[in-house]
Design brief:
This protein has 202 residues and is mostly beta strands. It has 1 helix and 15 strands, in the order E-E-E-E-E-E-E-E-E-E-E-E-E-H-E-E. Belongs to the pentraxin family.
């Protein structure tokens, strides 16, 4: 249970990462991924990387620059342009549904205009899920200049799209539905220079 704790990725650039274990029984037709990040990086960095043997960017939440987030599904991506942060925690949720190909992006509890991505696609179930690095191969192939440096917290993955109420609940750290990856019950393994610390502030 990592409630009120964070992963601190101490170095920049870094070869460190955190490997997450999810209980996935079947491929994903829908998903929602949420997390909080706190960093002063201005270079590209990966926040959440979900690779299968068939596709290294099956799900990827990536920040190429301070004013953009990218959501990849099955190797294709859409870009969400955002105001540059003010050196504060940023909470992001991204969801996708295969049936409509609709991608939603929420930043700090507010929805951005929805975009279309990979309608009819299915995300594989056998996955390597990493925080802190972007996979160019299953479980590896890292470029240190895409690595994350800073603090990460409140990481969740659901095998469903969340309702707007639940998206806001995730931002406010309220009660959430059961997840395949849940911060309050996380199965993880730290690889390299990552430290678990109490969260300093809200």
């Amino acid at each position: 249970d990592l409630y009120r704790k964070v992963f601190v990725f101490r170095k920049d650039p870094s070869d460190a990462y955190v490997l997450l274990r999810a209980k996935l029984e079947q491929p994903l037709q829908n998903f929602t991924v949420c997390l909080r990040s706190y960093t002063d990086l201005t270079r590209p960095h990966s926040l959440f990387s979900y690779a299968t043997k068939a596709q290294d960017n099956d799900i990827l939440l990536f920040k190429p620059k301070p004013s953009e987030y990218r959501l990849y599904v099955g190797g294709k991506f859409v870009t969400f342009r955002v105001p540059e942060g003010h050196g504060d925690w940023e909470h992001v949720c991204a969801s996708w549904e295969s049936a409509t190909g609709i991608a939603e992006f929420w930043l700090n509890g507010k929805p951005w205009p929805r975009k279309g991505l990979q309608r009819g696609y299915t995300v594989g179930a056998e996955a390597a899920i990493l925080l802190g690095q972007e996979q160019d191969a299953f479980g590896g192939g890292f470029d240190v200049y895409n690595s994350f440096s800073g603090e990460l917290a409140d990481v969740y993955l659901w095998d469903a799209g969340l309702s707007p109420d639940k998206m806001r609940a995730a931002y406010q750290s309220l009660r959430l539905p059961p997840a395949v990856l849940a911060w309050k019950n996380l199965s993880y393994e730290v690889k390299g220079d990552v430290v678990v610390k109490p969260r300093l502030r809200e």
